[in-house]
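quick one before i forget lol
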Amino acid sequence: MLDRTREYAPVGLVPLAWGFTAAAHLGYVGSHALFVAHVVIVGLLVAFGAVSWTEMDAGALRAWRGVIVAGVGVTLLGVASFRVPAVPGGVLRAATVVGWMLLPVRALAVTARRTPAPGLARVYLGAAMASVAGGAVTVVGLAAPLSAASGWLVLAGIGAVGVGQTASIAAAAWESSRPDSFSPGSGEHAI
C-alpha cells in the first residue's frame, strides 16, 4: 500500500500544486491557505524523503533525492514569506515558485538520458524544457509588474510548468507500473 501511494500520489499532487499556484496568482486563494499549503508540502517532502531515502541512492533517483532536499529548503522560504513584511515576503514567495519551476530540470534531464524508452525520454526532456521556458516567462512577468501582460505571463509560465511536470510524473508512474519497467536508480530494466 505504501509503495503504491508513493508511486501514484505525485501524479495527483503535482497538477494540484500547480493548479493551486495558478489559483493563488489569480487571487482565489488567501494567504492563510497558502501558508498552510507550504507547511503541508514541507511535511510531505520530509515524509517522502525519509521513507524513500535509501531507495534513491543511485542513478536518476539520486538526482530526484536532491530535488526533494532542495525542495524542502525552497518551500521553507515560502513558509518564511508569510512571517516577514510584505515586500520581502513577496520576493520569497516568487523565489519559491520559480525555484519549484527550475529544481526538477536537472533531474528530468538525467531521467531522460537514462530512460531506454525514446518516447518517455522525450516526455522527460520536454518537461525539462517546459520548466525552463515556464520559469523564464514567469520571471519576465514578475520583473515587469506594471505591464498589462505581466499577470498573463506569470500565469502562462505556471501553466507551461504544470503541464510539463504533470506529464513527466504521469510518464514515470506509468513506466514504473509496467512489469518490465525501467529502474531509474540502476539505469537498467527491472526484472
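fyi DSSP finds seven helices and two strands in the chain.
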